[in-house]
Design brief:
- Its cofactor is FAD.
- It holds the Pfam family FAD_binding_2.
- It is an enzyme of class 1 (oxidoreductase).
- It is a peripheral membrane protein.
- This protein is an alpha+beta fold and 671 residues long.
- Among the domains are: 161 residues, Succinate dehydrogenase/fumarate reductase flavoprotein, catalytic domain (Flavocytochrome C3, Chain A, domain 1); 114 residues, Methane Monooxygenase Hydroxylase, Chain G, domain 1, CATH 1.20.58.
- Strands 5-2-1-9-17 form a 5-stranded parallel β-sheet, with helices on both faces.
- β7 and β8 form a beta hairpin.
- α3 runs parallel beside α13 and α16 runs antiparallel to α17.
- The chain is globular.
């Protein structure tokens, strides 16, 4: 087993990445065409990595379970992408982006990785503009910015409410160029089911063709995992329904440490759950918090009347509304970080102030913004003494220009006009900060196996700031991995083509086939979804927005029992030699069941509150910060990296101690 070594370069923080690039081993262009790299996933991280590695001359084999790379879940990202360009002249800088990210992650991220991310952020925007990404622009034609939670500057570049889609199309176009050149072999509708190690190095994968059922062997000199996060362990989440942990979990079971699994982000701005029949939840972009004000009724009587349909929210005066984020956190108001906003919404709803039928919703209201923008537009257009109707009409035009597609999506789902009636929102599982442990070079504890984007743990600590997911994915794919992978591959130029006719490939393929045959031959009594829903309920109730030791111990026991029942009684209809979505789900849920137990074990081990991990036993007891999350830096300023030994309950904890030399550790305050 590899030693847990972060491989962070020596020297001052601001010079680490530059010095590494100046001295890192490189691969001669003539040798790159003799080296193969497998990339699993074609979202922003995987797509940008595949395109860049192929552009450099490597032979890339890219895999996605979707029917096209452009259908990766990155397409769903709405609000924007951060970069420290200071276009607004409001005091932004590389250091401030670095500081905001470390503070937003509640001081549980690796300083060197975060500073590098801030450094390359500006390059990402230039790269995407060159690709034709249609970022929003101001009246003078300059790239526009808006603000996101947890910061005091405007650094988020955006394309209406479809930033992820536009960025993914940019990466997809770059991939297509390399596909047409023959430098990328694209394997659509293929799912990685195991990694193959030869002499301790990642040398290939076993994949299933999801259309024919054929089990295939693919070899390479290095394997890159870019398969996204594990939010669907909760069953209901904002993730695409196909998003899964399988690729990450398979390399974990072969020796890659899994880091901080309990760090999961609950996004505060989602459309509330409407019933048990739902299979996923829908995100409303955090960008809406720039102009929307979050509130609940001040009196429980009004909240009950709204829930029962006897009152409308528009009937409540300003004095009857509790803008609780503005009240509690005056410095940041509605733009506090996601973990803070989510817990505050839960607290208000748990206290009886929720506003939908289930009591699990708060309002996101644009009335004040519409009036403010309307008055401004009337002033600009020279309207003297405009009527209220004219002001509202002008204001709605501005809101439509900024958020129109989001408002349209909300109205289609909820059947209410958000221009006239406040949106209802509630927190939901969204992003996972935990993931496969990687060093500074993005290599896992398996030699030759890399992990990038949301699939790794590296940049966000215990909480991700809004608009930083797209930033990390593209930074890893375009600007970090293409450098760092060269150090490893420079020692592979004499290796030659990797054969798939080896005992290691044979054994891995046989194990995959045995599991598939078990699923299709096991005549159980419960569907895969039956188990996934039960797992999701355990996770949400006991490992959700708040956690405590008693519930976490129960969760571990309940998940273990559920997993045992799954392997006895799961029913997978259909066969293995054809398209079979239920078979795909069975393998993914089997991995979720193991991950869920490790998740709860990690949460139980971390006896502190930090970011998305809120332990009820660890809160500030008095003073201005009473009730807020309380970290324990003396005992828990480390990355928890878990080694697989056969059962999640037997996983071995390895600690990467975190060092903070450029930022002072202190309790977060957004007041």
């Amino acid at each position: 087993m590899s030693v847990l070594n972060s491989n962070v370069p020596e020297g001052p923080l601001k010079d680490k990445w530059t010095n590494l690039k100046n001295h890192i081993d490189l691969v001669n262009p003539a040798n790159k065409r003799n080296i193969d790299v497998i990339v699993i996933g074609t979202g922003l991280a995987g797509g940008s990595a595949s395109a860049t590695l192929a552009e450099l001359g490597y032979n890339v084999k890219a895999f996605c379970y979707q029917d096209s790379p452009r259908r990766a879940h990155s397409i769903a990202a709405q609000g924007g992408i951060n970069a420290a360009k200071n276009y607004q002249g409001d005091g932004d800088s590389i250091y401030r982006l670095f500081y905001d990210t470390v503070k937003g992650g509640d001081y549980r991220s690796r300083e060197a990785n975060v500073y590098r991310l801030a450094e390359v952020s500006a390059n990402i925007i230039d790269q995407c503009v060159a690709q034709g990404v249609p970022f929003a622009r101001d009246y003078g034609g300059q790239l526009d910015n808006r603000s996101f939670g947890g910061v005091l500057v405007s650094r988020t570049f955006y394309a209406k409410g479809q930033t992820g889609q536009q960025l993914l199309l940019g990466a997809y176009s770059a991939m297509n160029r390399q596909i047409s050149r023959g430098k990328i072999q694209m394997h659509n509708r293929h799912e990685m089911l195991d990694v193959v190690l030869v002499n301790g190095k990642a040398r290939g994968i076993i994949a299933r063709n999801l259309e024919t059922g054929e089990i295939e062997r693919h070899s390479a000199h290095a394997v890159v995992i870019a398969s996204g996060g594990y939010g669907n362990v909760y069953y209901l989440s904002t993730n695409a329904m196909g998003s899964n942990v399988t690729a990450s979990w398979k390399i974990h079971k072969k020796g890659a440490f899994f880091a901080n699994p309990c760090y999961t982000q609950i996004h505060p701005t989602c459309i509330p759950r409407s019933g048990d029949y739902q299979s996923k939840l829908t995100l409303m972009s955090e960008s809406l918090r720039n102009d929307g004000r979050i509130w609940v009724p001040k009196s429980k009587e009004d909240a009950i009347a709204i829930r029962e349909g006897r009152k409308k929210p528009t009937e409540l005066s300003e004095d009857e509304r509790d803008y609780y984020l503005e009240r509690r956190y005056p410095a940041f108001g509605n733009l506090v970080p996601r973990d803070v906003a989510s817990r505050a919404a839960k607290e208000r709803c748990d206290a009886g102030y929720g506003v939908n039928a289930t009591g699990e919703a708060v309002y996101l209201d644009f009335k004040a913004a519409i009036e403010r923008y309307g008055k401004e537009q009337c002033q600009i257009h020279g309207h003297k003494n405009p009527s209220e109707k004219e002001i509202i009409a002008e204001g709605e035009k501005v809101i439509e220009a900024k958020y129109g597609n989001l408002f349209q999506m909300y109205e289609k789902i909820v059947d209410e006009n958000p221009y006239k009636t406040p949106m209802m929102i509630y927190p939901a599982t969204h992003y996972t900060m935990g993931g496969v442990w990687v060093d500074y070079n993005l290599m896992t504890t398996i030699e030759g196996c890399y992990c990038i984007g949301e699939a790794n743990f590296s940049d966000h600590g215990a909480n991700r700031l809004g608009a930083s997911a797209l930033m990390q994915g593209l930074a890893d794919g375009y600007f970090v991995l293409p450098y760092t992978i060269g150090k490893y591959l420079s020692n592979e130029i004499r290796t030659g083509e990797i054969s798939t006719d080896s005992p290691e490939f044979e054994k891995a393929e046989q194990e995959v086939k045995e599991k598939i045959n078990f699923f299709v031959n096991n005549k159980g009594s419960h569907s895969v979804d039956h188990y996934h829903k039960q797992l999701g309920k355990i996770m949400w109730d006991k490992c959700g927005m708040s956690r405590n030791a008693a519930d976490l111990k129960l969760a571990i026991a309940e998940i273990k029992a559920l997993r045992e029942d799954f392997w006895k009684n799961v029913l997978v209809p259909g066969g293995a030699d054809t398209t079979n979505p239920e078979l795909e789900k069975a393998g993914r849920v089997a991995d979720f069941l193991e991950l869920g137990e490790l998740f709860a074990k990690d949460a139980l081990n971390r006896e502190e509150s930090c970011g998305g991990h809120f332990r009820e036993e660890s809160v500030v007891q008095d003073g201005e910060q009473k009730g807020e999350a309380l970290r324990n830096d003396e005992e828990f300023a480390y990355v928890s990296a878990w080694e697989y030994t056969g059962e999640p309950s037997d996983a071995i904890l390895h600690k990467e101690e975190l060092e903070f030399n450029d930022i002072e550790l202190k309790q977060r305050s957004y007041k």
